[in-house]
Amino acid sequence: MRLTGPARRLTIFVGESDQFHHHPLYTEIVHRAHHAGLAGATVMRGIEGFGASSHIHTTRFLSLSQDLPVAIIVVDERERIDAFLPQLDELVTEGLVIIDDVEVIRYVGRSS
Asked: Model pTM?
């Protein structure tokens, strides 16, 4: 797949302990993005943060380290990202979903 020029970045912020059918929500999102043929997805685990609940989640306190923030980032063409959004309506019941217009400078995969 070639991806250069104008694109969209989809970022989904959820909690590490969020589940979908007894599996981590971030795993379900990545697998669905893969199945949808999107260019790629990356999950990043935060070390500290808070959201709508205003509870601070951090690795610094053992009792609060159960539900750290997670960001799933997907970059692809506008149309492909837009086509994927309805799946997030089913999956993300709590969290934040944002979209940015970006410019892809280089997208190179590994040789198999």
From this structure: 0.84
